[in-house]
Amino acid sequence: xxxxxxxxxxxxxxxTAQEIARLAExxxxxxxxxxxxxxxxxxxxxxxxxxPPGIELIHGPGxxxxxxxxxxxxxxxxIAQDPKVILTxxxxxxxxxxxxxxxxxMKARGADIRMVYSPLDALKLAKQNPDRExxxxxxxxxxxxxxTALTIMQARGLDIKNFSVFCNHIRIVxxxxxxxxxxxxTLDAFIGPGHVATVSxxxxxxxxxxxxxxxxVVSGFEPLDIMQSIVMLLxxxxxxxxxxxxxxxxxxxxxxNAAALRTIDEVFELRSLFxxxxxxxxxxxxxxLNERYADYDAETRYNLPGLHVxxxxxxxxxxxxxxxxxxxxxxxFGKECTPxxxxxxxxxSSEGSCAxxxxxxxxxxxxxxxx
Length: 371
Ligand code: SF4
What we know:
Helix content: 25-40%
Order of helices and strands: HEHHEHHEHEHEHEHEHHEHEHEEEEHHH
Oligomer: single chain
Structural class: alpha/beta
Shape: globular
Number of domains: 2
Bound molecules: iron/sulfur cluster
CATH architecture of the largest domain: 3-Layer(aba) Sandwich
Largest sheet: 5 strands, parallel
Number of helices: 16
CATH superfamily of the largest domain: HypD, alpha/beta domain 2
Strand order of the largest sheet: 2-1-7-8-9
């Protein structure tokens, strides 16, 4: 297939749904789609409605903005209080709530916080403003870490000293292990994140699949990609296999992107522990700048307070991120917590499961019922 509408062909989708129904007959499987991009596609294209009752999709922690604890957001915003600083971040971060407001609200109160499309935009700002300090709020899985690393290497190469990075890059495999280690874990199989695998390769899931005896299929993001991935998982479950398959081979190389992986190795090292919202402290789950590039590390440059913020007592973001609750089962969903007045990042991130459910399911149901 070549064109996007072929991946959305209603006839092929119906046929694939029929095959899923045949394979899942009389069974009940809980399948986690790890990536927030998959969650949005599932809701946007109404794929859940096409599945038989025996297939339950569980939304995973693959939204980097959602899993960032509020204390890290506030640490970043502490930097922005320095009048010399221009804090830059991706658009996804702008509405993420910290304890005393989001970056957008802090900007409205006078902090110089600017949205950028890439870390290179932040570096450009540093070049244009030699009398200011430009800090990039870096966030994302292995997918976006190479761009941050490359920008830091460029800053070094161009001898730009008024640029630094507040590094919040995280790794997906340790988070998957943390989920699989939970005592109440009842997942049968995983739709593996496609974006991360473009950098790290599909092979990074092999050990997890073997250790926990769970099938993995790395999937694309179009409706037929996801439905076909479910068929592949069901076939593995039926035959008792637990291997990694690559449904997204048109984009994902099995071995990953060697050049991108080299930039990560050049600039970063693993943190021994990093806190994830809902999952707690996970060993080796995040990157920080290594010794060689320590002078570009905003955490050492700004002596951050290392804030730990207690979340709203009724917010159930952690349970939703672990897959123990569906977004609409959170006590605050659609009441205190909405996209206009978010309590948790899951309600505002473009990959957040609460935002997906609110925009594609809740709003339509509310329109039909006249609420
Ligand atoms: S509805 Fe709001 S508070 Fe509840 S889980 Fe979603 S983002 Fe968190």
